[in-house]
Amino acid sequence: MRLRAREDGSEFEREDSLAVEEPLEIRLHAPGAPGNTRFVTTMRTPGHDEELVAGLLFAEGILRKRADLLALEHLADPRVEADLRANVLVAELAPAALARAEGLQRATIMGSACGVCGRTEIGRVLPEGTPPIESALRVGAELLLALPERLRMRQSVFAATGGLHAAGLFDQRGALLELREDIGRHNAVDKLIGTYWLAGKLPLSSNLLLVSGRAGFELVQKASFAGIPLMASVSAPSSLAVELAEAAGITLVGFLRERRFNVYTHAARVAG
Asked: Do the Cβ atoms of 209 and 244 come closer than 8 Å?
């Protein structure tokens, strides 16, 4: 878009790129049923929508094994305009998964900054009895310090707009395996984890997760479900994020930037 800008006392017009934010309506479908039901509408940046839905339903505890998701397709109703159908995904669930979804109450609309909006019980963030993550992963301080720059180098949409969060999955040598961007930091993590869930590659017990924003408790919860033993953020964690990381067996690193970082939990995984 074209805008008017002010810089160093001068005003001028220029072109600018904006991060896209659009609603994605998620519907659930039972095998053989004539219709489907609305589960939630989330605000997101279009792209990797199937992975986003899979990751979100997995993080909610609705999807537990690959057989729980029978199909995941865009709405096929010809009575609905094509551009609207592109923003509706229908997940066909096995009966057990559908029953779990019916017992889960969520808000009608999730904003792009919302990870657990509408939940009726805080206990669902990390279910009681969840065993802590066990992993032989050990990383050095220098490896951690190199990760933010490796993430930024792959953030193509952020470079153009400056308005997206990123989530990157690294191996134990510090190589960036996958990156997802979204206007919502929880969406970026859902897209990333959903990619691996759909491929049947969970748990990610030998990998590191780096997020570009702050480390909220909902991101720690998602990392826990995916079996990720180390999560790092370039910004601050919340108090509940630290509590959840301690209980979940996750090494939580914050303020990973400018040649410094803090280790809040399970520091034995970070050498040096």
From this structure: no
117 is catalytic: no
Query: Do 149 and 265 fall within a single domain?
Result: yes
Per-residue pLDDT of the chain (272 residues), as tens digits, is: 666 777 777 786 776 567 788 999 999 999 988 888 999 999 999 999 999 999 999 999 999 999 999 999 988 777 767 677 889 999 999 999 999 998 775 545 454 455 555 444 445 566 667 789 999 999 999 999 999 999 988 876 544 445 689 999 999 999 999 999 999 999 999 999 999 999 999 999 999 999 998 999 999 999 999 999 999 999 999 999 999 999 999 999 999 999 999 999 999 999 97
Q: Identify the active-site residue in 104, 113, 114, 240.
A: 114
Q: Going along the chain, which residue ranges are E strands?
A: 2-7, 10-15, 22-29, 37-44, 69-74, 88-93, 109-110, 139-140, 165-170, 176-182, 208-211, 230-233, 251-257, 260-263, 270-271
Residues 113 and 50 in one domain: yes
Residues 162 and 113 placed together within one structural domain of the fold: no
Residues 76 and 164 in one domain: no
CATH of residue 52's domain is 3.10.20.10
Q: Is 48 exposed, middle or buried (0-12, 13-18, 19+ CB in 10 A)?
A: buried
* Position 237, amino acid: P
